[in-house]
Amino acid sequence: MVKIANRPVGPSYPCFVVAEIGINHNGDLAIAKRLIDMAVEAGCDAVKFQKRTIELCYTPEELEVPRESPWGETNGDQKRGLEFGQREYEKIDRYCRDNRIIWFASPWDEPSVDFLEQFNPPCYKIPSPRVRDEDDFLRYVRSKGRPVILSTGACQMKHIHKAVDVLDESNLIITHCVLQYPCDDANLNLRMVETLRKIYPHIPVGYSGHEKGLATSLMAVVLGASLVERHITLDHTMYGSDQPASLEKIGLVRLVRDIRVWENARGDGVNRVLATEEANFQKLRRKHEELSKS
Q1: Residues of 81-97 as b/e, b for ≥16 C-beta within 10 angstroms?
Q2: Taking the model in full, what pTM does it have?
Q3: Domain residues for 60?
Q4: What does the pLDDT read at residue 101?
Q5: What is the pLDDT of residues 91-127, one digit of tens each?
Q6: Are 247 and 233 in contact (CB under 8 A)?
Q7: How many domains does the chain have?
Q8: Tens of pLDDT along 20-66?
Q9: Rounded to an integer, what distance in angstroms lies between the CA atom of residue 47 and that of residue 84?
Q10: Quick one: which of 17, 24, 60, 227 is 20 to 30 A from 6 by CA?
Q11: Is 259 within 8 Å of 221 (Cβ atoms)?
């Protein structure tokens, strides 16, 4: 079990549902607040953002690549337009506190970790592209002493083993993930949730989904995912590469609802006869006996 803001995450506890806002706010704080509202109304446990230091995550050549966007004509214009800074995160922090929902972010570089530290985040999530052969970054995140959610998209088992060795196993959650947007159902490999649980029985395992539908994310919970993360959007048609693989409000509401239905209905697997069953049994038995005598 791992605690995120005093909320226990593990096999014996309700699934921790994360609404991934990421960069679907399109650099607009008003959109970000509407997405937070959507997560609150759906009953999510947390919202998540992404934080990058643009000049560290991209080379000057990559930033100069032509790319039409609402912010300009280069890739750099687009990346900078999507990035929130001090003012926006201060307002996000206050808004989430006022609405009593947990928030955290995926830092992509060490300065972004330092930036997020000022908000006393309840945890960090390591994005999949920062897992393979990124020991120094993983050690830096671990040095902050906070719970870590490890995404495993595009990772072989050797990469996962190595990352787990670097991080603090007692304060770690591993999430199965497939780095395809949107992800085809045939590529989801949901049974990796079971595989990871068997390999790491003492570490909570979650699922970070990029598929279009709802059923497969619920299936991940049935297979034992203690945490589920899905991207959310106000509208699939909005600008942004993550929007098509994101859930609109009605989908998010249904997913959280169905996860809670499963948790209420799964039981403990212990055979027992309910009092209502016994009463119905006796009633039906008497009726059968009466019909047999007639």
Answers
A1: ebbbeeebbeebeebbe
A2: 0.95
A3: 2-293
A4: 98
A5: 999 999 999 999 999 999 999 999 999 999 999 999 9
A6: yes
A7: 1
A8: 999 999 999 999 999 999 999 999 999 999 999 999 999 999 999 99
A9: 15
A10: 24
A11: yes
Let me know: does 151 contact 177? Beta carbons within 8 Å: yes
Q: How would residue 206 be classed by pLDDT, with cut points 50, 70 and 90?
A: very high
Amino acid at 10: G
Residue 212 burial (10 A CB sphere; 0-12, 13-18, 19+): middle
Buried b (16+ CB within 10 A) or exposed e, 232-264: bbbeeeeebebbebbbebebbbebbeebeeeee
Structure tokens at 65: 């690549």
Provide the pLDDT for residue 290: 76
Q: How many CB atoms neighbour CB 116 within 10 A?
A: 20
Segment 206-227 mean pLDDT: 97
pLDDT at residue 288, rounded to an integer: 77
- Cα angle vertex 189, ends 164, 227, to 5°? 55
Q: Which residues contact 218 (CB under 8 A, 6 or more apart)?
A: 255, 258, 259, 262
Tell me the CATH number at 119.
3.20.20.70
